[in-house]
Amino acid sequence: MKILSGVIALLLLLAGAVWWVGMVKPSAEGGVGLVVENARVRMLPGDRPMAGYMKIHNRTEQPWRLIDADSEAFGRVMIHRTRVGEGRARMQHQRDGVSINSGETLEFKPRGLHLMLMDRTSELKIGDQVDIVLSFETLGSTSSARDQVVPFTVVPVASQ
Ligand SMILES: [Cu+2]
Q1: The CATH number of the domain where 40 resides is what?
Q2: Cα(139) to centroid of ligand 1, in Å?
Q3: How much distance in Å is there from the Cα of 125 to the middle of ligand 1?
Q4: pLDDT tens digits, 58-91
Q5: Phi and psi at residue 104, in whole multiples of 5°?
Q6: What is the distance in A from the centroid of ligand 1 to the CA of 132?
Q7: d(Cα 141, Cα 64) in Å, to the nearest integer?
Q8: Of 5, 19, 34, 158, which has the highest C-beta tally within 10 A?
Q9: Distance 75 CA to ligand 1 centre (A)
């Protein structure tokens, strides 16, 4: 039991370390520095598509673009924007992704930008964490691409 708890502690430590490297440390070293905050998925029953929300802070010197998102927990993930016009809401697929200028924050929120999460591959419940891979690219002075694994928390549908 002692060994098992030791292993679990080590795994948690490693998970935390990966999160740290992916989210915070690179900015201090001149790397990416795209910080994702309040990543969450609103729970819907059955097979209905769910929506993922978050804030992305661009703490780098370059403009970045979120070009794709993917997750083993869902068959398909798309970047959508809800627009309201002529009295009804439409969701538009952001084919070219969404850009975030240096120093800016991009917010995915209800009735706005969201990750459309379709065809879930397993049961989910409130409090679960699902990893979503966010793919970024920059066309700044040093053109590059980067994938970041971000844990999203499953929250009640009524929450913002
Ligand atoms: Cu949508």
Answers
A1: 2.60.40.1890
A2: 27
A3: 20
A4: 999 899 999 999 999 999 999 999 998 888 989 9
A5: -100, 165
A6: 16
A7: 11
A8: 34
A9: 14
